[in-house]
């Protein structure tokens, strides 16, 4: 059987997780990001959606977790966080939604987070933010970014379909309530 798309995504981004993102931000290194086909991303989104459907609407998590707020397509922040805290084989993460829109790398940020979720479903958790609703991410940059890169809304629709199955709340140690906002 061939290598899974999630594994390929992680492999192709691996060096980005260990390089100091400051070097990219200051132009000392050129940020060359991999790209994936429409079929690859549709497959990845479907795989992520499958992991969300096997989760409950309220996640019950342990306090040994890194909680990450709005990334909004800021891929260098994602690289910095993974570099600081490690890959999810040794670290648990909770992303509090709004992984897309506003930043210039929403597709790549969502792709990495979905790949991490597929590869490490017990250690990578994502709750849905308001920017994971089609009405908002179609107006705030994500759809435009997808159309610019892929030329059709197919990838956008695949992500939005997966977003619809994300949990809405996480309880950490049955004591701390984590939601995107409100």
Automatic annotation (TrEMBL):
The record's InterPro entries line, in alphabetical order, gives: Calcineurin-like_PHP, Metallo-depent_PP-like, PP1_catalytic_subunit, Ser/Thr-sp_prot-phosphatase
- Show where the Serine/threonine specific protein phosphatases domain sits: 127-132
Reactions listed under catalytic activity = O-phospho-L-threonyl-[protein] + H2O = L-threonyl-[protein] + phosphate
> Which GO MF terms does the UniProt record name?
protein serine/threonine phosphatase activity
Which CDD domains does this UniProt record tie to the protein? Answer: MPP_PPP_family
Q: Which PANTHER family match?
A: PROTEIN PHOSPHATASE, PUTATIVE-RELATED, SERINE/THREONINE PROTEIN PHOSPHATASE
The record's family statement is: Belongs to the PPP phosphatase family.
Official protein name in the record: Serine/threonine-protein phosphatase
* Origin organism lineage: Eukaryota, Metamonada, Parabasalia, Tritrichomonadida, Tritrichomonadidae
